[in-house]
Amino acid sequence: VSAARRDELEALWANPPGWRSLSAVNHGTIGLRFLATAFVYFLIGGVLAMLIRAQLASPDAAFMSHEAYNQVFTMHGTVMMFLFAIPVHEGLAFYLLPKILGARDLAFPRLTAFGWWCYLFGGLMLMGGLVAGVAPSSGWFMYTPLSSGVFSPGIGEDIWLLGITFVEISAVCAGVELTVTVLKMRAGGMALHRMPLFAWYVLVTALMIVVGFPPLILGSILLEIERAFDLPFFDPTRGGHPLFWQHLFWLFGHPEVYIIFLPAAGIISTLIPVFARRPIVGYTWIVAAVIATGFISFGLWVHHMFTVGIPHLGLVFFAAASMIVAVPTAIQLFAWIATLWAGRPRLELPLLYLFGFLFVFVAGGLTGVMLALVPFNWQAHDTHFVVAHMHYVLVGGTVFPLLAGAYYWLPHVTGRMPAPVLGTVAFWLIFIGFNLTFFIMHLTGLEGMPRRVYTYPAGLGWEDLNLLSSIGGFVMAAGFAVFVLDMALHGIFGRPAPANPWSAHTLDWAMPTPPPVYNFASVPHVTSRDPLMEAPGLRAELDEGRHYLATPRRGWRETLGVDVVTGRPDQIILLAAPSWLPLWAGLAMATFFFGFLAGLYPVAALGALIALVIFLKWGWANGLRADPEAVPAGHDTRLLPHVATPRPPGWWGLLFTLVADGAFFASLLFGYVFLWVVAPDWPPPRLLQLDPVLLAVTLAALAIAWLAARSAHLGNERGGARDSWLLLATLAAVAATAAFLVVPTRLGPLTGHAYDAIVAVMAGYGAFHTGLGAIFAGFAYLRCRAGFVSPMRSLDVALVRMWWGYTAAVGAITAIAVHLAPWALP
Amino acid sequence: VTQGARILLFIAAGQIVWSVCFVVLYGGLSLGCAAGTEQVRMLGTNLLTLLLTLLWLAHVAIVAWLLRLSWQRWHAASDRPGTFHYRTATLANVVALAATFWIGFPIAITTPCT
Fold first, then answer.
1. In this predicted structure, what is the pLDDT of residue A719?
2. Taking CB atoms and an 8 Å limit, are B15 and A291 in contact across chains?
3. Which end of chain A, N or C, is less surrounded by CB atoms within 10 Å?
4. What is the mean pLDDT of residues A587-603?
5. Cis amide linkage into residue A420, ω under 30° from 0
6. Which helix (H) or strand (E) holds B41?
């Protein structure tokens, strides 16, 4: 590409300078912000861990009070799991995915930025609690009744529930965005069978986030409602059940272990072939294993609850699933070993860290199989053995691969090579320190030392082991300090990196380092799974503009959209420019969450309203007011902009958002049935009286809204009636909303029994969706009137149709469950 | 449903059936115990064990059928993408079949509600 064209691309894609860079939406910038923020939280979590080890180093220690200790271990787990382990992988995927797929950005750049603001503000809420001495103290899984208002009356648990929900909004946004990006935004010719393994791992992980996070979001909302308004979802004296919380938490919590592990495994599958100097062995096996792991990991959650009194047969289901999940994990391990075996490995710094992973993770996996055995689990439950297992899996499964990835992609980010000396010293300190710390916890655990005790008396035989464990912890901390020092010195003294310094095979190295903000001067076309192995001169071809979308036009930020399966280019995706809307939306959401935390509910409501207005303005800015023509895209291809195609990224985005919504709804429905069947004092003293008219009105309004939305979409495609159908959908949606809002007025006091509470929440869920459906249909009507919609540009009405297909279905199930289930359930 | 969604769903079909089987068995166990169906004797066992066994075997049969289908399509595939899709589906279905069998066989040898 000529210097002039490169300047043009740079000007088109550049972030605003100075403080205005806060409006940046570029995936590289936001990805690095995620990574930096996560690393800061990691250091904070590490300091908390050192406080724990200082306290436990000797018996009867008075270094911390039990109140402070409870806050410290709760925040250590919370920070490491929610503010480090998940976001760091999101950040890496944000930074890397478009580069490794051959795209110029992610599918929804403003959503990427919004996610970072939610993550930052939610994390700051938790940090604020820590600094103020009012941090949560019920443990990172926040079990009820300990976390209920009765036993934890301060605001610490509210900080956890609201802060984590805020952060999880970011995670669900990431899940949707990464899924759509992998499916639709790849290099030309990158069919599914040519997709880099890292993208497969990210795809499965992102879908797991989409399905796995909503149960905890629901649980957090219900527990916060219980704490704030006394609705008794988890209070067994009023028809609630503490195990309802445990189910919701672990429905999220165990898949989350794999949500953390799988992207790390994606790093491993990317790095091992590079350092083995051959393509990966068993690509198809690995893809199948990753998919299987993603599914089976959802069948393990009760192994955290083996001691709560579930029937033995139920335990056996989960024990069996907990064992068999080792099979697809082992397939991946054997594929990595086979790749090293069949290749010509060169031991460079990233591979050293991968060896650390192999040793530590395999050990953690073996103790995992031990804990899957119910009788052993009963013995080891809530002891330091579990703490040891968990850290072997999590540190082995995610921290070592991340450190390997850090050294591997460092030249990509900074354009400088790492020096092996400090990195090697850091490795051995971390490796030895880690094993000294946590291997010993197996022994203290087997000797009966429970977790979460702030001190222990002398004479139990735990003194020396705990002291060794604490020494190991500080050795590990020293290792991380050396790693930080290495990173800092690298930025100053690292020698400039040559092109593709590791002789990698993937597209992320087919660009200058540090990368330009637009990634590729022309978007690549690939014909192989290892494009740089097959065509070492690819980067030069891309720089010369010989592939797709080399010439900027009309100020559009263009990247290629492809067919999901074949990778055949099928659209040009026009991406958003820098915008302040993500920050404003993040601030509005912060107003909601901080207002709720302070008990200022009108302020919280105002924040939610402002957020809604901002999102509508956000949506209004999309689209074109005239039908575009197909334009040359390179490789003798002419393509339409995405807004004029039937399946643009926005369509896929709503689809996967509704998958997340469906997981939320299924969890709510599960709660309704669970409480009815398992909780004490059911059936409740007073049931909702069956009102056939109200039920009929609800179902009819839902059906009319759905049919009207469908007719608007079909009418638009045929050039027929459209606007009047949208108005009808709006009116029917308002009627359905009113019908749902009537339900809570016919219940008993919502604080009296869990039945009234959960039925009110279900009706609220229905009203929320039908209400939003009214706004969306009205919004689409206005967009039609403003000229954004035509038979060719049909996304607005397609989205309304999809929303109403979902809302009508779940609304009908809700209405039937609320009105008819009392007469069907035992 | 687009072609892409069809192929991705086919690759994941065995795993989806496994997931459904898991939910059906665990949910069926809970509801069956609450309804007292283990107290009803039938064919030398109790009604709940009988129902869960039938449900389990039905899911095993479905996954086995999916495995056979993906195997046939894999060997009939003439191009690289098709081979990849159906081979991946076959491997995922092998794991799904093993997992479906493995989680369910204790039904026949364990009392359900204790």
1. 84
2. yes
3. C
4. 97
5. no
6. strand B41-42
Q: Compare A192 and A419 and report the one with higher pLDDT.
A: A192
CA distance A265 to A198: 8
Give residues with Cβ within 8 angstroms of A769, minimum separation 6: A806, A807, A810, A811
Contact of A295 with B9, CB cutoff 8 Å: no
Q: What's the pLDDT at A60?
A: 94
Give residues with Cβ within 8 angstroms of A366, minimum separation 6. Answer: none
Minimal CA separation from B3 to chain A, in Å: 8
Question: Does the pLDDT of residue A825 top 70, yes or no?
Answer: no
Do A500 and A532 touch, CB atoms closer than 8 A? yes
Contact A292 B15 (CB under 8 A): yes
pLDDT of residue B1: 59
* B36: three-class secondary structure by DSSP: coil
Which residues in A570-597 are b (16+ Cβ under 10 Å) and which e?
Answer: bbbbbbbbbbebbbbbbbbbbbbbbbbb
Cβ neighbours of A192 in B, within 8 Å: 7, 81, 84-85
Is A678 an interface residue toward B (CB < 8 Å)? yes
Q: Which of B4, B35, B96 sits opposite A826 (nearest CB)?
A: B35
Residue A826 pLDDT = 59
Residue with tokens 């935390």: A597
Q: Which of B1-30 are b and which e, b meaning 16 or more Cβ less than 10 Å from the residue's Cβ? A: eeebeebbebbbbbbebbbebbeebbebbb
Amino acid (one-letter) located at A91:
G
When scoring B95, B101, B107 by the number of chain A Cβ atoms within 10 A, the one with the most, hence best to mutate, is B95
Cβ contact A291–B92 (<8 Å): yes
Can you give the pLDDT at residue B110?
A: 86
- The answer, yes or no, to whether ipTM is higher than 0.90 is yes
pLDDT in tens, A7-51: 899 999 999 999 999 999 999 999 999 999 999 999 999 999 999
For A550-573, the pLDDT digits (tens) are 988 888 999 999 999 999 999 999
Transcribe A483-516 into DSSP letters.
Answer: HHHHHHHHHHHPPBPPSSTT---SGGGSS-SSPP
> B31: which chain A residues are within 8 Å (Cβ-Cβ)?
673, 677
Question: Nearest-CA residue of chain B relative to A826?
Answer: B35
Q: Amino acid letter at A18? A: G
Extract the tokens encoding A109.
């750049």
- The token duo for A627 is 């039908």
Best probe of the B interface among A180, A186, A244, A291, by most B CBs < 10 A, is: A291
Q: Helices A109-131 and A86-101 sit at what angle, rounded to 10 degrees?
A: 160
- Stretch A233-249: mean pLDDT, rounded? 96
